[in-house]
């Protein structure tokens, strides 16, 4: 195992060293990332400054939701967020360089540009998570503890798959990076609000097609003991691993097809 | 007999080009490479020549597994390049002169550490190999400088060391000297000559620079519009297209233009006829015969024979439509 | 003046070359519009059907108009000038017989003119179909709205110009750009209407040019600000535009002197 991972460790270590080499600009970037996290939080707070309940969630519930989605998305963004700028890699020939190395291309792409600065956003969301957990009254059981711990993790895994989907699509739509944004950043945006405020088609879209609801909303319902709206009952909150497996299958197939398209092996 | 390091049979690649918009959208097929047959034996040094868009890069991409052929077969190091991309990557080194495989914000030393991990070189192997390359490519001075701060010449040397780090059997260089100044070019050629003399690395080189071809290769393949136009030695090519040679004579005293020497064309007269340039086609006459004719008219103080300009030779090859 | 028209034309043409990108941008704006309209309507519903003067329909209309205008107004980052300053290409702009600020502004207006229809129409059409739009029936708000959107582009440009000028003094602008992005997105009314802000935040916003980029034009188009009120908003936009352009000029002069004296 260690043998297999050694190249990636070396790649990641070299990336981290280069980011930390320019300390001042790294700190500024980190502050910028905190700023983005605060902006997203401000949006929720401004909305709740005029109302008390959105969907079935009060401010405390909404903050819990925000925190799960925020941690998941920012971790995914840190690890694989750069893959949706695939056209840049295509133009600069970096992808060809990857193809000339004895490692899988996707693994090289993922390890090529880990962005530590995005942890600034994770930090904001983590602070909100601590506050939100203390604000809500949750009837803790061991199962719920496991759920609360695993939710940010599976949230990150699901968002990471969305980024890989976005990358795969761009083998065909080189100019259409923003199409992909609609599902990655759009998915994250939709995930930070109770899915129940959406119309049924959108709720189905963001649950079963782009599984954003699994990253935060559905587990939050389970933790807070809500029933959940029609078609997307709270019990689905336990199924984030299934959603993650599903979307990763789609992502990897899409990536494989995209790479085959690029190398002309047919698609 | 050992297996050739590259063998291509009927190799071809089509691209679908879409033009126009909406209803007027059309698909047309462009043939970037067609019917290429060649083999390259281990240890050879081959120049792969052609005009822009002649199909050079497409061929290189097919040889290295980046692109899949639409026709024919290719084997590199005995492998199907696309199917065994990763295995092949361990055995070849590739340098694209205009693209970088180094990490632009890291020093070369870091890039080599990462590449060593990628190719699973042990620390001892890395140390010896890196030491040799650093010394021979003279990288010591800027080994710790981030790549983006290197000059082009330094970067290309760094790229070549990166490609050779894992001691590949085959080194493919795509326009390695493009944009380099005269000194850096010369240095690079010197290194490549030494590398060839030292080991059994096979060299495949695409270039626009005819000096590269002359100095570095013992065989050339010329492609024109994706098809093989010539495969052989450089002198053989010169002979095939029948390029003229030029004989330049410096005479002892001012002489009337030597316009009627049999089998030659007078190209120019300088300094009142003290220096005259005559072109002749090998085959129709010889340098000795020309010299004999000239000596009969005036005393020759010195003479030089100019080899044909190779770009001109390739142009002639293209023009002859073979 | 004709040179500026040429620059505006170039701005238009450069962007019209990226049709797929424009389509992709419009698609993303529309998807975000769907989410945003749902959130807005959800919040208004939770507030009892009315929130800061918006009912469900006008709230959704606000969300759709915001999504329609962000492309042309470009409240996001722009770093072309900063890149030219860093690479030293700015010297080429200085050598041209046209004022750089005016030249870039003309090009930006050309870009905005090109993007207006392709970026604004798709979200508005989808909005009309999905939630319906509450738009005035008379012509005047649209005419004033067009003036207001143009002014919004100028204000947005003047702000981005200033942010980019930081490249004369700073090596890495990413931090500055991100903070600008955060401040402008929140305070221009993109995430929620400025009218929803708690009083202290509304006061902060009022002291910045950001509402002039999005909230003002939308208020005018929707007829929320009509007659004298609309004129006040337009006046505010003009004041911000002139003020920021003048400051931008002065700062550019100082930066350009640095380039000329130190040779980059």
Automatic annotation (TrEMBL), chain A:
From the record, give the transmembrane residue ranges.
Answer: 26-53, 59-80, 123-147, 153-174, 204-224, 236-255
This protein's record includes keyword Zinc: no
Any keyword Transmembrane?
yes
User: Which InterPro entries does the UniProt entry name for this protein?
Assistant: ABC-2_transporter-like (IPR010390)
Going by the UniProt record, its keywords in alphabetical order are:
Membrane, Transmembrane, Transmembrane helix
Task: Write down the PANTHER family for this protein, in alphabetical order.
Answer: INTEGRAL MEMBRANE TRANSPORT PROTEIN, SLR0610 PROTEIN-RELATED
Q: What is this protein called?
A: ABC-2 family transporter protein
Q: Which organism encodes this protein?
A: Occultella gossypii
What taxonomic classification does the UniProt entry list for its organism?
A: Bacteria, Bacillati, Actinomycetota, Actinomycetes, Micrococcales
UniProtKB/TrEMBL annotation, chain B:
Compartments, as annotated in UniProt: Cell membrane
Q: Pfam family example for this protein?
A: ABC_tran
Listed name of the protein: ATP-binding cassette domain-containing protein
> ABC transporter domain: from which residue to which, for each copy?
17-250
What SUPFAM superfamilies does the record tag this protein with?
P-loop containing nucleoside triphosphate hydrolases
Q: Does the keyword ATP-binding apply?
A: yes
Kindly give the InterPro entries that the UniProt entry links to this protein. AAA+_ATPase, ABC_transporter-like_ATP-bd, ABC_transporter_ATP-binding, P-loop_NTPase
The organism's place on the tree of life at top rank: Bacteria
Task: Tell me which UniProt keywords the record has, alphabetically.
Answer: Antibiotic resistance, ATP-binding, Nucleotide-binding, Transport
Stored Gene3D superfamilies: P-loop containing nucleotide triphosphate hydrolases
Which organism's genome codes for this protein?
Occultella gossypii
Q: What is its main location?
A: membrane
How does the record say this protein sits in the membrane?
Answer: Peripheral membrane protein
